[in-house]
Amino acid sequence: MTQTQEALLRHGAEIIHLKGFHHTGINEILHAAGVPKGSFYFHFKSKEDFGLKLIDFYAQQLHAVIDKHLEAEGPYMTRFRLMFEEFRDIFTSQGCRLGCPIGNLALEMSDTHEAFRRRLEEVFRSLRRGIQAFLQGARSRGEITEVHDIEKTADFIINSWEGALLRAKVQKSPEPLDLFFRFVSDWMTRHRLDDRTT
Amino acid sequence: MTQTQEALLRHGAEIIHLKGFHHTGINEILHAAGVPKGSFYFHFKSKEDFGLKLIDFYAQQLHAVIDKHLEAEGPYMTRFRLMFEEFRDIFTSQGCRLGCPIGNLALEMSDTHEAFRRRLEEVFRSLRRGIQAFLQGARSRGEITEVHDIEKTADFIINSWEGALLRAKVQKSPEPLDLFFRFVSDWMTRHRLDDRTT
Prior knowledge:
The structure is a homodimer. Chain A is an all-alpha fold.
């Protein structure tokens, strides 16, 4: 990846995080990145090509936070909490705006751009694997009890987190994020998903 | 409200549910409703005025489903499940597209249109009161055990549902909605949010 491509992705990521993909013009990204007008298609095949690379760019940022806590020391559940607190703090430091770039694009693009939808679902699955790693580690050390289906639990956690961020953005408050963690950690440390509920 | 206003809201609701508020043009709505081009501002003060009335229109549709199940016969938890199944069936009947109109507008508009944000948060609170009514009824009849904070539980449920719908839209599958209900009902029928987790 060239320096210019990186600059366009970095600036595009900020603008699109705020305004959405459709509502952001290519010239706006070029202008923000200080790249000459009209040169976009020299750097990316299409706006779709740019968008797909942008999804990867966002995913890398999220995975960097997840991996940092996965590779740290201490009880898995403590690090799990610290990870969500870090995501919450990023959200509050941005004035309770923006939210999850992947969730935003998911709602905006999933019905109208199949290539985006597929890539976004891949990202959700890779994020789920990160959550799964915490749950597996926590279970192996006896920090959580009897979580039967780690993969489904991880999916529920990611989906609920997206909903909590959506609501936090509307409330302009981190409260839904704290509520999310309170419920999820309560569930994980003391309860199990029984087969009779399937 | 005039017939023309209603027609514009009804057609606008469909188009905006798919394409979002910003990406939908006024002329597109007029055309779909068979209303003469250029006459929009005869019927609504502004696109914002239209958008706020659209939020109310969506909210009424959601409350109609909630109220129907609240006023039905039988155990509260059964009706609670039937309500979410009805919302799930609406989603699948639409080809696992669209999702929650309130959630979509929330992500799209909360950072950029304060009047929309406030109205959307009001809708979330009114939906929460609907969920609360189920939980209160279920608790009073002993169908669920020891849910301490009904209001917070209802908020967590609504937020998680929004996240489940977001993911279902990406997966093009109702599976996240079923997973949501499985976790939430498991939690509610057998567990409690202990004070030590606060």
